[in-house]
Here is the input.
Amino acid sequence: MQHLVEAPLELKSLRWTQVSAELVPKIENILRGGNGAWIAGFPLDEQSLVDLTGRLGQPLLNYNRKSNIDTGASRNPYINLVKLAGDTEAHRLLHGKGGPLLIHSARSWLAPRPKLFALLMVNEGWRGNSSGQNGESLFVPYSEVFAAMAAKDPERFREAFSLLKSQRVRFEADNVREQVSDLPIVYALEDSRHELDFGVRLKQNLVDKLATMELFGAEPGPLRDAVGWLQQTAYDVAQSKRITLESGDLVIIDNNRWGHGRCGYPATREIDGNIQANPREVWSLALA
Ligand SMILES: O=C(O)CCC(=O)C(=O)O
Ligand SMILES: [Fe+2]
Here is the structure.
């Protein structure tokens, strides 16, 4: 069996212009080709982010609005804020880090699957740590992850891929209550372009979650192996193409076909006896 992906998928560079009548078709064209858009110079303004992405899809309400944790935050209803919670958390994380995020899909539990994911780097935080310790961003097309698995061990891939595509699973978010999907982890797409072109719904802690998940009678063992291999390979492939976003960089990807994650970063540093929290700040949203 051949695993040909016509041309390697990538993030295509664009620059923000006020005129969304020009920018939107360019982004749509990039997404239609299976690539992602990397737009520089985007304004650090929540409404601008919702306005632009709202022309590409329907923004989903953010986690806070759907969460059973009261964050007390009054914010834009659609934007997820990813940031250390100031000094309190800085102290708690005194010797800790803003941990790495494994490759995942936005709202992996949700039905129907959100079709797009957008991430704006608002504040890139402290740079100049060793490579891979600066909160670098990870974006990876799942088709490339499958190709890497197939190249590594064709027989193991055949079995794992078949299981991941056929075994329905149901799991909830950790803190959010909304309509959950019972699609397999790897699911067919109506407009599939080739034999490795599938949708994927990966959650960061999916391997651990399997223990408590609805598996419709299946044994957890083989699924745990397959998911673990998929997530590890996704992380490895993504590491080889990690990018450093600057403030004002906006990335928009197909949330079925691409996973995202990030490298770790130092949570705190001490200057003249004062503990400071890393100011790194990301805004993200999912779109139906
Ligand atoms: O911190 C990051 O760069 C990624 C955050 C993330 O995964 C998200 O906002 O969904
Ligand atoms: Fe995420």
Q: What stands out?
A: The first helix runs from residue 20 to 32. The CA atoms of residues 199 and 257 lie 5 Å apart. The mean pLDDT is 90.
